[in-house]
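Bit of a strange request maybe. I'm writing a small parser for structure token strings and I need a real example to test against, not something I typed by hand. Could someone generate the tokens for this chain?
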Amino acid sequence: MISDVTGILLAGGRSRRMGQDKRFLSVGEESLLNRSQRVLRSVFSRVYIVIAQDSENLDAEVPVLRDIVPGCGSLGGLFTGLKNSETSHVFLASCDMPFLSPKVIQFLVTQKESVDIVIVRNDEGLQSTHALYSRKCLPIIADMIHRGRLRIRDLMNHPDLCVRVIEGKEIESIEPLSQSFMNVNTPADLERAQGQTITGGPCRHSMEP
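Reply from user aminoacidic:
Good idea to test on real output. This should exercise your parser:
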């Protein structure tokens, strides 16, 4: 169990592209929320769930935080998680990722020494909602929010942050056919994920822009 990194699970609840609250949609025998929460709890001794300010109350087995600043998407959720964390780093994940891998997460944690961000780059690009961030990001995120720059990936280009990029091929060497980075954003994504729990075969990754 990792104690020097806090797990942060984004569960905003808007789900515009899905058309319904995807947190409670099932993949296998569990909801998306419960699947991702279970994995983070198996890896980290401290886990927080971050929801939107206007989201309905969420019943969970870990503390649930509301966004400090509303309407800032994943960047705002990261800001809230870092603000409430007592550890030097947090691991950020989205609750719509049904195939989070403890092995992959643990590997990313081992890469955090002397860096502010550890992030994977695969065929879909940088996986910013499956990455480690240090508390050094906090004032930079606060400035981004103040300026209305809400793309979390803009953090990767900041001159004051040290970023370690892990190439997707390295993840495949740890866990072949890893589906850790698949997001369920649309009904078609949900159908693919549900089929994956039945067939166990490979599945194309997708990522919300």
